[in-house]
């Protein structure tokens, strides 16, 4: 019996300048960057990568927007442009 491996086609999502500003404000309000990452639900290295490359995968993006409280705003914009 052979097993098949499924590959996920993960795509990176670019954060808008407003989202980056809000994320940086959120991080500064926390005692440490590690605490901010824990609250978001990602690791600190992942948070660092997001800040450097200004993009992330969908699952991290959803967690960030949930914490920032802008998830519904962004999704409505995407539906309007689609």
Describe the structure.
With 82 residues, the protein is mainly alpha-helical. Helix content is 65%, strand content 7%. It contains 5 helices and 2 strands. It has helices at 17-29, 33-40, 44-53, 58-68, 71-81; strands spanning 12-14, 55-57. A two-stranded antiparallel sheet has the order 1-2. It starts with 11 loop residues before the first strand and ends with a helix. The mean pLDDT is 85.
Which key terms come to mind for this protein?
single chain, mainly alpha, two-stranded antiparallel sheet
Give a quick precis of the structure.
This protein is mainly α.
> Got a strand count?
2
Q: What is the overall number of helices? A: 5
Rg, Cα atoms, Å = 15 Å
Neighbour order of strands in the largest sheet: 1-2
Q: What is the string of helix and strand elements?
A: EHHHEHH
* N→C terminal distance: 43 Å
**Which band does the percent of strand residues land in?**
5-15%
Give the low-confidence spans.
none
Residue share in helices? 55-70%
SSE inventory with pairings:
Elements: E1 12-14, H1 17-29, H2 33-40, H3 44-53, E2 55-57, H4 58-68, H5 71-81
Antiparallel strand pairs: 1-2
Helix pairs in contact: 1-2
């Amino acid at each position: 019996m052979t097993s098949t491996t499924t590959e996920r086609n993960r795509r990176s999502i670019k954060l808008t300048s407003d989202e980056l500003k809000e994320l940086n404000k959120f991080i500064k309000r926390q005692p440490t960057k590690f605490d901010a990452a824990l609250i978001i639900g990602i690791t600190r290295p992942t948070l660092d990568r997001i800040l450097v490359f200004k993009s992330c995968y969908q699952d991290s993006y959803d967690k960030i927007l949930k914490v920032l409280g802008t998830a519904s705003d962004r999704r409505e914009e995407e539906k309007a442009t689609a």
